Each structure stands twice: as structure tokens, then as C-alpha cells.
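Hey L., structure's done. Input below.
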Amino acid sequence: MTEPLWRQLGAPRDVFGRVVYELARWFALAGGAVLVAISAMSVASILSRWLIGRPVLGDFELVQLGCAVSVSAFLPWCQMRRGHVLVDFFTTGLRPRDRALLDGAGAALLAAVAALLTWRIALGGIGIRQAAESTMLLGVPVWIAYALMLPSFALLALTAAHTAWSEFGGAAK
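Output:
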């Protein structure tokens, strides 16, 4: 609920950390651009429905695909900024080093889960492409969203691994 004020959230000092930090920042910016685009399309659809009685064809399909891509692009940046929700009810009384070890263990677990999800998203995207699944109204191939989400989850695995390494004392603070 409350993060210690002593924790600096700037760019890491190690080379690998700076690289994943910048990649995560650019992914978040790209995710924001996608979110702005689908928001503009939603406004256009609402106005079109109001003015001429017909929405933009397939607006909900594009919102679904765009949100999936956008949210996945935000996850690495959130991890690098230590922005994920922490339940620190039981750890508020611990020493900072003990808390860092628990945070490192959580980040290592997130890295493992993100790597697993990267693998499963890749396999799922391949399966969906082979099945030629597409959206109902526009016929957009669904595998494209999987392909766009894949790098975000791979980067999430890297950022979480770096966070774990930093918490365990491997990176310069």
C-alpha cells in the first residue's frame, strides 16, 4: 500500500537494466498510442451512431484487440517502475533487506510466469493462425493481436528478471 520513500525509481544504472528500461518505456508509449487510437475510434463510432444512426463497423472488435495489445504493452513499464499492486500487510514490520528479498522472490515468480505466458501466447497464436480465426464483422485475423502481444510478454519476463536481480542485490542501486 505504501512504498518506502527511499526507493529510487529512476533508470537502472546497469547496462542491461537501462536497455530493458528504455524498451519498456517505448512499449508503454506504443501502448498509449494504441489506446488513444481506439479511444478516437470509439468516439467516432458514438458520434456516427448519434448523427446517422450507424456505428463504425466492427468497433467493438477493434476495441477488444486494441485493448489486449495496449494492456500487454504497459506491463513491462509497470514492472520497471514497481507499479504493480503489492499486498504489504504482513511485511510492513520487516527490515528493508527482508522486504527486498520477498520483493525479489515475487519478481522472480513473475518472470517465470511471464516467460510461460510468452511461450503459450506464441503457441496459441500459431494455433489460431492455422485455424484461420478472424473477427466476425471485419475479418481481422486474430493471430495478429497475439503476435503484437508476444514481445510485450517477453519484455515483461526480462523486466521482472531484472527487478528480481536488482532486489537480490545484483544491480547497482
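The chain has a mean pLDDT of 90. The two ends are 22 Å apart (CA to CA).

-- N.
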